[in-house]
Automatic annotation (TrEMBL):
GO terms for biological process: response to antibiotic. Its main location: membrane. It comes from Amycolatopsis panacis. SUPFAM superfamilies: P-loop containing nucleoside triphosphate hydrolases. It comes from the Bacteria. PANTHER family: ABC TRANSPORTER ATP-BINDING PROTEIN, ABC TRANSPORTER ATP-BINDING PROTEIN NATA. This is ABC transporter ATP-binding protein. InterPro entries: AAA+_ATPase, ABC_transporter-like_ATP-bd, ABC_transporter-like_CS, ABC_transporter_ATP-binding, P-loop_NTPase. Keywords: Antibiotic resistance, ATP-binding, Cell membrane, Membrane, Nucleotide-binding, Translocase, Transport. Transmembrane segments: none annotated. It is a peripheral membrane protein. It holds the Pfam family ABC_tran. It is found in: Cell membrane. The keyword Methyltransferase does not apply.
Length: 311
């Protein structure tokens, strides 16, 4: 961890227990200024528990943790004043309008009314909600509420923005719009920490990430580095009628560097997908459908843990 001296967030042997249950089991991380850093893993992997410790709302059980160079246990209020936090669930005040949500939240940080009004107008434009500024929050779509939650987290011009599962439950169009807003923030110098169980989201947003499973870090690197390290260039997906995967896999033996048999398909990991698919056809294997695609972070997770992220 050579970058630890310049890290905005650094942890060593970090542990979080709830009674006898160990949610985070001795992880090391270092988040650099200006990067988008991700925690990728299934529900229950320890991502949110780690984020709550970084956000200074849940004390660590063991290990070392520094956020913005400060100790969360001794300097929690000072750290929180410099953070922006987007929780898993929107906790907007539904009795207020869109603009009022920003005004009220800004006052929590002791900002002047004039500054909050000015900042709110900037954030309404940023979140593409200016035309909804005086509408009640309940009238917003799910994607709009998520954008408002992110806008609200930026009222205090945070150095570090924590986003816990930011696009869960959103449709594809809303997700891509939210990604665009986050790309803009990163380009402006805001450091992002994102938890997600969406592989495409991690690949799109993160400069570096850790793959978590069972409270531990299974791998760390950029999305491209992880794919190169743990997978092949291409994957052939073959779908069969229910119950036919195992027999089909036997007929595919030796065609790929690695074969995974899943409940709904067989995956062949190879450097040359089209050639591998052609050889499968030559052996008389006839799937219901076939697809050649590039490797993804889901393939990395499958290699590391033996199951898919949606399990």
């Amino acid at each position: 961890m050579a970058e630890i001296d310049s890290a905005l967030v650094r942890a060593k042997a970090l542990v979080k227990r709830f009674g006898e249950f160990e949610a985070v089991r001795g992880i090391d991380i270092a988040v650099r200024r200006g990067e988008a850093f991700g925690f990728l893993g299934p529900n229950g992997a320890g991502k949110s528990s780690t984020m709550r410790m970084i956000a200074c709302v849940s004390p660590r059980t063991e290990g070392q943790l520094r956020v913005l160079g400060l100790d969360p246990e001794a300097d929690g209020p000072r750290i929180r004043a410099r953070l922006g936090v987007v929780p898993q669930e929107d906790n907007l005040d539904t009795e207020l309008t869109v603009r009022q949500n920003l005004h009220v939240y800004g006052r929590y940080f002791g900002l002047s009314r004039a500054h909050v009004r000015r900042r709110a107008e900037e954030l309404l434009e940023f979140a593409q909600l200016a035309d909804r500024a005086d509408k009640p929050v309940d009238s917003l779509s799910g994607g709009m509420k998520r954008r408002l939650t992110i806008a609200r987290s930026l009222v205090n011009d945070p150095e570090l923005l924590l986003l816990d599962e930011p696009t869960t439950g959103l449709d594809p169009q809303a997700r891509h719009l939210l990604w665009d807003r986050l790309f803009r923030l990163k380009a402006e110098g805001t450091t992002l920490i994102v938890t997600t169980h969406y592989m495409d989201e991690a690949e799109q947003l993160c400069d570096r990430l850790v793959v978590m499973d069972g409270g531990r870090i299974a791998a760390e690197g950029s999305p491209a580095e992880l794919i190169a390290r743990y997978s092949t260039r291409e994957v052939v997906e073959l779908r069969f009628a229910p119950g036919e995967q195992e027999a089909a896999a036997a007929g595919l033996a030796g065609l790929a560097e690695r074969t995974e048999v899943l409940p709904d398909r067989v995956l062949l990991y190879t450097m040359t997908g089209e050639a591998t698919l052609e050889r499968a056809h030559e052996r008389g294997v006839r799937p219901v459908s076939s697809l050649v695609r590039r490797s993804s972070l889901e393939d990395v997770f499958l290699r590391l843990t033996g199951r898919t992220l949606v399990d």
